[in-house]
Amino acid sequence: MISARPGLVNAFCVDLEEWFHVCGVDAGYSDPASWDSAPSQVIHDTEILLQLLDETCSRGTFLAVGWIAHKHPALIRRIAAAGHEVGCHGYNHRLLFTQTPREFEEDLRQALDVLRAISGQPVTCYRAPGFSMRRDTLWAYPILRRNGIEVDVSIVPARRDHGGLQGASRDPFLLLTEEGPIKCFPVSVMSLLGINVPFSGGGYLRLFPQPLIAAGYRQNHRQGRIGMAYIHPREVNPEQPRLKLPLLKSFKYYVNLRSTQRKLRATLETFRFTTVSEALESVTQWPEYELRASNGRFLHDLRRRKPR
């Protein structure tokens, strides 16, 4: 049993996808029709994460690809039965900017239908594949809200390969859309030499030393801000099949896989983690932003709403 840990309660997210769900490059599995031919690793890898969460008395939000839920419904039921939250990561794991609004809504609805039916949960939390929420994809927010999504965890307030909203709020905020309000919980970043840098998940967690990761959480906590960790199941499996990727992409995808479990355990034992929904219960101030169209091609701006 882990003793009580001081500090704010952070959110723990798992992007529930397979080892071949790589974004932004054709590595042999860009067509969903090819996925059934690939050896599945997600059950094995997710069980490792579930055990880590159980041993550290932590809970999390599993943002599942709808295709995973359709193929492995028992895994989704296992996650829900263990007391974790089930969220949505799209059905076919497509980057937002590769879809039209209509295609996006069809994919979203397909994913939500299967996730809600299997998990027995309302499934109100969403993350865009590849964190691909950009200024030219903010049109997705009214669609998300129309389909029952109440919390989005897609925004990275820093530079990123195929996403990122530099200058966006680091704090959770309320986004007002034509379909109603949606809570936005940005991915955690830390300030290094005046630059916002992600530190708490994915390749950053694998690349950075543990003291720097811990410093990132403490920096956010000193500023009264809850943190968010995130991981992909494949990142705890050094023996996963390897994709043929461009050199830089391969480095980002596979660096330090053997140290992931150690760093993840140290983080979970040092700080407190729970689901996205529960972590957000501690947020008492919700700055409001409005989503306003800036032209007719679905480009939008986020503008701070002035207090009345």
Secondary structure topology:
Layout: E1 9-16, H1 42-55, E2 61-64, H2 66-71, H3 73-81, E3 85-88, H4 101-119, E4 125-126, H5 140-146, E5 151-152, E6 173-177, E7 180-184, E8 189-192, E9 195-198, H6 202-207, H7 210-222, E10 228-231, H8 247-254, H9 260-270, E11 272-274, H10 276-279, E12 288-293, E13 300-304
Give a concise summary.
This protein has 10 helices and 13 strands. By secondary structure, the chain is α/β, with parallel strands linked by helices.
What gap, in angstroms, lies between the N and C termini? 48 Å
Indicate the CATH architecture: Alpha-Beta Barrel
CATH class: Alpha Beta
Question: Based on helices, strands and strand pairing, what is the structural class?
Answer: alpha/beta
Largest sheet: 6 strands, mixed
Commentary on this structure:
The chain is α/β, with parallel strands linked by helices and 308 residues long. It has one domain: TIM Barrel, CATH 3.20.20. Helix content is 31%, strand content 18%. The strands form 3 sheets. A 6-stranded mixed beta sheet has the order 4-5-7-6-12-13. Strands 1, 2, 3, 10 and 11 form a 5-stranded parallel beta sheet that branches. It has a two-stranded antiparallel ribbon with strand order 8-9.
Attribute tags:
308 residues, alpha/beta, TIM Barrel, six-stranded mixed sheet, five-stranded parallel sheet, 10 helices, 13 strands, 18% strand, globular
